[in-house]
């Protein structure tokens, strides 16, 4: 049996159909409502559809186990809907994340709150355009969360394993919300934590904010819809969590050293935002107290210029922090790969999971 294709076009079509239904429900809502729905639709464009890919491949890994069918199985609507719901939820998280981080761009375009601010100005409305953009983005994220739930439930109607899928989805939502809080809390709370705990605290954030949410839970959501047993769930979790950590650590590296033309965000943006990542924890471990104090004073300064960013980048390299994080990425990716060896999963899907693992860790955006 050949490697299982991941039908991302089918996910995009499922999203488009859902958005069209939402627009139809509000066709008499006026120009302002239409503009709000346009902003929601815009938030769903672009991206790698990584979570949808892992969800579908998690389903395939279970559904294809032991199959002798000459062709790869095609994902049913409940799986496509769940995968699309994940993408809507991710869009909601990005809208709120950009607002929290005061980010101006996302994927090379204005972040949602900036786009809404611009629409306010273009329309020549009264009041503070920036305040409107921020308030509207909060509501936009909330609408997208509601949409993700709506689409999930729409897809689960009549699904045999709906209860298990709902449990996975609910756990994912709770964990990523706590992880996001810990992410912003760490930017302030790090001063009260012993220096030798910073690395572990950074990995705790990475686990909740990204590893489980981006890879482990999407895998388990798809697997739940296929009726996974405990051994299959264990194998997918043992693969998904370390791979999710490697994915987030790669994201952290790109947040400091990434090419803005490729990532769609300014180089060094994580330094201006004050993200207390493993890169930062490892850097601080190798700095003398005086240098560490200066480093801490610069991290999180939104006015950092290109020269200061370059100096901080060099410090991260000189302390060996970048190399240590690259080694951690390799270590976590290897751990994930080992979890697939002999796992009770469909062989074609295991190959697809390995391809996705490479995409998640060896990337430039």
Shape: flat
Beta strand count: 2
> Approximately how much helix is present in the residues?
over 70%
**Discrete helix count:** 16
N-to-C span: 32 Å
Strand order of the largest sheet: 1-2
Name the poorly predicted regions: none
What Rg is obtained from the alpha carbons, in whole angstroms? 21 Å
Instruction: Let me know the largest β-sheet.
Output: 2 strands, antiparallel
Q: Name the average pLDDT.
A: 94
Query: What fraction of residues sit in β-strands?
Result: under 5%
Q: How does this model look, in words?
A:
This protein has 365 residues and is mainly alpha-helical. The chain is built from 16 helices and two strands. Strands 1-2 form a two-stranded antiparallel ribbon. A hairpin with a 2-residue loop joins strand 1 and strand 2. The longest helix has 28 residues.
């Amino acid at each position: 049996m050949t490697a299982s294709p991941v039908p991302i076009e089918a996910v995009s079509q499922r999203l488009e159909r859902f958005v069209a239904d939402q627009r139809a429900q509000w066709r008499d809502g006026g120009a302002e409502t239409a503009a709000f729905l346009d902003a929601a639709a815009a938030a769903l464009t672009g991206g790698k559809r990584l979570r949808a890919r892992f969800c579908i491949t998690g389903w395939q890994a279970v559904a294809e186990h032991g199959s002798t069918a000459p062709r790869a199985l095609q994902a049913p609507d409940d799986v496509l809907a769940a995968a699309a719901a994940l993408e809507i939820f991710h869009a909601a998280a990005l809208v709120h994340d950009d607002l929290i981080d005061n980010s101006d761009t996302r994927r090379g375009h204005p972040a949602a709150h900036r786009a809404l601010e611009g629409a306010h100005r273009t329309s020549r409305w009264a009041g503070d355009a920036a305040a409107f953009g921020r308030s509207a983005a909060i509501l936009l994220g909330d609408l997208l969360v509601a949409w993700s739930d709506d689409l999930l439930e729409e897809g689960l109607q009549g699904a045999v394993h709906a209860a298990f899928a709902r449990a996975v989805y609910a756990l994912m939502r709770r964990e990523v919300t706590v992880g996001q809080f810990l992410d912003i809390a760490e930017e302030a709370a790090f001063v009260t934590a012993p220096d030798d705990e910073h690395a572990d605290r950074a990995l705790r954030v990475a686990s909740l904010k990204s590893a489980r949410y981006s890879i482990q839970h999407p895998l388990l959501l798809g697997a739940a819809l296929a009726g996974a047993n405990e051994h299959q769930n264990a194998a997918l979790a043992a693969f998904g969590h370390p791979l999710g950590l490697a994915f987030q650590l790669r994201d952290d590296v790109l947040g400091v050293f990434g090419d803005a033309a490729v990532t769609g965000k300014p180089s060094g943006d994580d330094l201006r935002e004050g993200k207390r990542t493993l890169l930062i924890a490892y850097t601080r471990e190798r700095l003398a107290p005086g240098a560490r104090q200066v480093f801490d004073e610069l991290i999180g300064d939104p006015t950092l210029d290109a020269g200061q960013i370059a100096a901080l980048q060099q410090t991260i390299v000189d302390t060996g922090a970048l190399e240590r994080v690259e080694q951690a990425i390799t270590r976590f990716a290897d751990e994930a790969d080992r979890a697939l060896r002999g796992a009770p999963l469909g062989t074609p899907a295991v190959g697809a999971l390995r391809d996705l693992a490479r995409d998640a860790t060896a990337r430039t955006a």
